[in-house]
Amino acid sequence: MSTHVMAKCWGKPNVFKHDRYPMFGTGLVMAEGHHWVRHRHLIMPAFSPLNLKRVASRMVECANEMIMRWSTQINDAGGNGIIIDVEKDIIGTSGEIIAKTCFGGTQDEDAKQVLRKLRALQTTLFKTTRYVGVPFGKFFNVKKTIEANKLGTEIDRLLFSVIRARKESKKADDGIDLLGLLMNGGGGGNNNEEDVLTEREVVDECKTFFFGGHETTALAITWTLMLLALHPHWQIQLRREIFQVLPRDNPFHDINLFSSLKKMKWVMNEALRLYPPAPNVQRQARQDIEIEGLMVPKGTNMWIDVVGMHHDKELWGEDANEFKPERFMEDVNGGCKHKMGYLPFGFGGRMCVGRNLTFMEYKIVLTLVLSKFSFTISPSYRHSPSIMLSLRPTHGLPLIVQPL
Ligand code: HEM
């Protein structure tokens, strides 16, 4: 069966669309059919390399603030190094980055509130035992469902007010943050009414970017730092590469040089293989589908276990569980025996729209932290990855951070 036919046969499970509505609304992650085609077409230009280059300086600003906080903490403690919960700080920084990338730093307080409420919403939806998809399941935990809807409405209200304020103020940098681009038809030069998102649609896309855009990227960086702390020779290799490729006095002078950070890319690919921040992808059969003699009846929900697939020895070989960035040296698929075996950003037409933003943020943050500090695992670290929509370290990531 061709990929084209497959794409039309599968949709997002209805059960998740309803359950996750307060978080994503009908934003791109949940959209389908014509609605999805229109949104994807309008949103893609906002993530073009040119637009991303324009927001790079905001990423550098946020990452530098974190570096300065760490340096101050280390100096205050005598200058030799301290234990820092790196996950917490990286998620905070990534939240600031997505807020600035979305809102351009013009509505900082609103952005912070959106992030706080989204986090509370995530805890309500995914940290408690709820019976999603179980018949009458919503009656088992009415309180949590009401709480989630309330938070969803509050986030909507905040975002509507941000959009209206933006329309009234017409700030000079409106066009260079994601919100400005979405409000102007995605930055693709669209002027047709059909080609401009409504306020409601912009709100849902902002929620999607805010949530989908910061935690995943932060976790990619967090798991990478854990792996580098465990494999110091890779830490040294990346640092050496950074100093060879980027000018020491102004590393972000030319963002095009990032493409020469080859080892950093292998390390990122390997971290995303071992600890994919999006640990599973779900689909529902929109019609009866036959796959190599197997009949999947219409309505069937399917989970693609990305973590399982990324650790499958039949696909990756006996060293599947080992950290070996060099497997990506010659092959973007890391030598996986199946072309669909490596899916950190999903697949086909629904592949992650924000991956270039992630690559940029990942390289900026890693360049800055590795240029200033070395990392070792803290004795207090307990390895316990768990899934709360994304794959995260349950007890955070305490690392010993030392100045170079
Ligand atoms: C390490 C970082 C990231 C990972 C691992 C990741 C993972 C994914 C995956 C697996 C999908 C496919 C979901 C599916 O098919 O059901 C996806 C879609 C999506 N991602 Fe990401 N993502 C990341 C970063 C981002 C960022 C930075 C943004 C935006 C600022 C973003 C926005 C989206 C959107 C809007 C979609 C839906 C695309 C569509 O259905 O057309 N993601 N992402």
UniProtKB/TrEMBL annotation:
It comes from the Eukaryota. Keywords: Heme, Iron, Membrane, Metal-binding, Monooxygenase, Oxidoreductase, Transmembrane, Transmembrane helix. Transmembrane segments: none annotated. It is found in: Membrane. It is a single-pass membrane protein. InterPro entries: Cyt_P450, Cyt_P450_CS, Cyt_P450_E_grp-I, Cyt_P450_sf, Cytochrome_P450_Monooxygen. Belongs to the cytochrome P450 family. This is Uncharacterized protein. It comes from Stylosanthes scabra.
